[in-house]
């Protein structure tokens, strides 16, 4: 379970995330919604370690992550999508995934250096990489250099690399932002598939309410850095605070 307790960050006098306490269970996709500037991305940055907290804590399965850098949080099981900048453009799709699998297994599966173990490790890494490519429907592109892939497939490959790290928590911040009409459903489909694994915790920051309605098991609402609503999607969307946060904004714009 991922838990934040009184998680807070101040920028000068401005409290961007204000004492947010929340638990996220495996097998649940929680959508984080709220108006622009509500603190959603900042809350993500505090959880993933991109930003140090002014106060409060982040724990994963009882392990204290507060104060750890982002890389250590990734190793602990927090997987933030599209933060990985380690696609190797001149290597093939398969080689990219195999390297990510290897990075994860290194240390854990080292059995000493002999030719047999190098060969069998290589075969195992390849099999695992192929399994991941199959689950993201990219087997046909396994030999293509990454640089030759269309943008949507590169984003899909980034999710595959994230899967190779076997995180217990997946964090998506507006995963379809900047994607074309054709590309967006592909990524949403991958998230739908990840949801089937009930051992995974998924957090999704998303503005598009149709996507939230379809994917979320639970919604939390941030407003001016405060957690103002938390519950089952239908209930939260109908709540006066959400209606005000969204519709109030629409009224202001009008
Ligand atoms: N590094 C920073 N320094 C100063 N202020 C910041 C910093 N990062 C975020 N903020 C402020 O914190 C507030 C929350 O921003 P944040 O980007 O988390 O909102 P958001 O809910 O993700 O918005 P959007 O939906 O527009 O992406 C905003 O007022 C923003 O200007």
Question: What does this entry look like structurally?
Answer:
The chain is α/β, with parallel strands linked by helices and 254 residues long. The chain has one domain (2-253): P-loop containing nucleotide triphosphate hydrolases (Rossmann fold, 3-Layer(aba) Sandwich), CATH 3.40.50.300. Helices cover 41% and strands 23% of the residues. The protein has nine helices and ten strands. The chain has helices spanning 40-48, 70-76, 93-105, 115-135, 151-164, 183-195, 209-215, 233-238, 240-253; strands at residues 2-11, 14-24, 29-33, 55-60, 63-64, 78-80, 169-173, 201-205, 218-223, 226-231. The chain has a six-stranded mixed β-sheet with strand order 6-7-8-3-9-10, sandwiched between helices. It has a four-stranded antiparallel β-sheet with strand order 2-1-4-5, with helices on one face. Helix 3 packs across helix 4, helix 3 (93-105) runs parallel beside helix 5 (151-164) and helix 5 runs parallel beside helix 6 (183-195). The longest helix is centred in the middle third of the chain and has 21 residues, at 115-135. The model has no long low-confidence stretch (mean pLDDT 89). The structure holds adenosine-5'-triphosphate (ATP).
Concise structural overview:
The protein is built from nine helices and ten strands. By secondary structure, the protein is an alpha/beta fold. The protein has one domain: 3-Layer(aba) Sandwich (Rossmann fold), CATH 3.40.50.
